[in-house]
Amino acid sequence: MPDVLGWRAKLAVLGPSTNTVVQPDFDDLRPAGVTNHYRSIFTPNLDAVSNETFMAGTSLIGANVMGAVDHAMTMQPTYFVMGMSAVTFIGGAKGAEAFERSIVERTGLGISMGSAAVQAALRAYGGVRRVAFLSPYFPAANAHVRQYLTEVGFDVVRDLCLQCPSWLGIAEVEPATLRTKLLELDGDDVDAIVQVGTNLSMIRLAAAAELWLGKPVIAINTATYWHALRTLGILDRKAGFGALMEKF
Q1: Rounded to a whole number, what is the distance in angstroms from the first to the last CA of the chain?
Q2: pTM of the model
Q3: Average pLDDT of 59-81?
Q4: CA proximity to 14, closest of 120, 111, 142
Q5: What is the share, in percent, of the chain residues with pLDDT greater than 90?
Q6: For residue range 28-38, what is the model confidence (pLDDT) as tens digits?
Q7: Domain residues of the chain, as ranges?
Q8: Identical fold between 9-114+222-240 and 116-219
Q9: What is the CA radius of gyration of the chain?
Q10: Contact at 8 Å (CB) between 47 and 165?
Q11: Most distant CA pair in the chain, distance
Q12: DSSP string of the chain, one letter each residue
């Protein structure tokens, strides 16, 4: 018998224990018959983050992923969704493939994650070649995002990193700051703008920005959840969260 609430899909969402944005974002995007089950990856909050400490913290999250995976498997999920984007870009395209393979081999289930979802989202819009991206990261992590996007066929025109001072601090960045950064990234030489970093609250701002910039603006949480739904054959549209959820 199907789950009475998750009769279409039970999604196991893996995210850092410090992440306070993914769970409400995904719940806002959730259609009827799909349930989201957040399983935390143990993540101590980091203060005074630098290139070195940011990458060390990302490595710790990566090392703790399988504990959350095993935890999630006890509720027999339909599919996995990664609510943490940095680890999915580490090592470029090959690193992303290896990370995805590690989850699939351990569980026998598929997974949607930020790197692959962003690539699929950019291709869904069509005609996108030149991109810019925004992150809460430090430059060392941005380099991995740039590497991935370049290796899968996009030209990265420019990028910005907010260098947030802690994991919790990422969720404290206000929309006005993010709007300013989007305007800094934009230009006639950019076909689309991407936001990475799942603890940045951008699903509504990105949708609004598409209207006033007149081009795709892809929030990582929207892209990842959209990718999961479409991979599972769930084609529900949802207004207010950008063209991905409304048209594709």
Answers
A1: 31
A2: 0.95
A3: 91
A4: 111
A5: 88
A6: 999 999 999 99
A7: 9-114+222-240, 116-219
A8: yes
A9: 17
A10: yes
A11: 53
A12: ---SS-SSEEEEEEEETT--SHHHHHHHHPPTTEEEEEEEEP----BS--HHHHHHHHHHHHHHHHHHHHHHHTT--SEEEE---HHHHTTHHHHHHHHHHHHHHHHSS-EE-HHHHHHHHHHHH-S--EEEEEESS-HHHHHHHHHHHHHTT-EEEEEEE---SBHHHHTT--HHHHHHHHHHH--TT-SEEEE--TTS--HHHHHHHHHHH-S-EEEHHHHHHHHHHHHTT-----TTS-HHHHH-
Q: What is the CATH number of domain 9-114+222-240?
A: 3.40.50.12500
Distance of CA 101 to the CA centre of its chain: 18
Retrieve residue 182's tokens: 């989007």
Q: Which two tokens stand for residue 232?
A: 């599972």
Q: Which residue has the tokens 């025109």?
A: 157
* pLDDT of 206 higher than 90: yes
Contact 170, 197 (CB under 8 A): yes
Using CA atoms, how far apart are residues 192 and 207, in angstroms rounded to an integer?
13
Q: Which two tokens stand for residue 228?
A: 């999961």
Tell me which CATH code domain 116-219 carries.
3.40.50.12500
- pLDDT for residue 57 is more than 80: no
Token reading at 236: 């529900």
